[in-house]
Automatic annotation (TrEMBL):
Pfam families: EamA (PF00892). Belongs to the EamA transporter family. Residues 3-150, 179-312 form the EamA domain. Residues 1-22 form the signal peptide. This is Drug/metabolite transporter, DME family. Keywords: Membrane, Signal, Transmembrane, Transmembrane helix. It comes from Herbiconiux ginsengi. The chain crosses the membrane at residues 32-52, 78-98, 104-126, 133-156, 176-197, 209-228, 234-259, 271-290, 296-314. GO terms for cellular component: membrane. InterPro entries: EamA_dom (IPR000620), EmrE-like (IPR037185).
Amino acid sequence: MLPYLAVLLAAVCFGTTGTAQAFGPSDASSVSIGAARILIGGAVLAAVALLLRMRGRARAGSPAPAIPGPGGRRTPSWLLLLIGAAGVLAYQPAFFLGTSQNGVAVGTVVALGSAPIITGLLDWALHRRFPGAIWLVATLVATLGVVLISGLIGIGSGTGAGGGGGSGTGGAGAPISFSGLLASVGAGASYAVYTLASKALLERGWTPSSTMGSVFGLAAAFSIPLLLTTDIRWLATAPGLAMALWLGLVTTAVAYLLFGWGLGRLRASTVSTLTLAEPLTATLLGTLVLGEVLSGVAVAGLIVLAAGLVILAVPWRGRRSPAPAVSPSS
């Protein structure tokens, strides 16, 4: 159960993003916050990976190993790193574009709801392995819970969270933008891309720390010019600095160390569905900390979402666990 708990705890860290932003400066743009988060978190992850390797505790892969890909093709590790970093960077603007055009409720449901489905389908297509009936049922149940929480079904407002970037309250009734929907699906696909790229590195012997440090360290380097194109005066304020540090250290560095450790021992499709605990956490924090009021439908959504996660995490009889991609001592 430890890999499942590690991913769930990572999702809890992800779910604090919106609450942290609520206590931060209101004039900070989403793009600026996202870039600062990746820069701080990625730098810390890279430093942790380097420190562990210098101390001989991490077993990284060779400089440019390759593994078989679809159709007998072979993918070098440097290309997987670029793909993973590109997925990390692409997630933020795609998610925020979707929520800005269709509202947080719709944008969140499409982005977070599509991520585990796209991950499972891509994993199936690339590795010819169906994630399993339990994954399918759990994903459908959990996604229904996210839809109910968002308020897209029933009367009343709902609360949502963005997997790497934001949280808020939204509801149904406004016209739906097709370009916004595409952006939200793009965010879900970006999540699937960096999850599968990271999983591929783990499967060839990279440790969770070296994988997350390399992928997010590269993304951090690419985020520097993006951050410099935004107004960063909010970082000079106490609330702004506190928010940036929380987002970088907790929702990125700590969260992705846990995420990577769990990903090394579970299927990518399973991990993607487990991270739907993020909107569950964000909704509870919005209610308990920010004083947001949930409708009866949203409360039902919390129960349905939790049920989906339980279905996936419970060790059902006869279900085979995938072999760990890294040694237990990693």
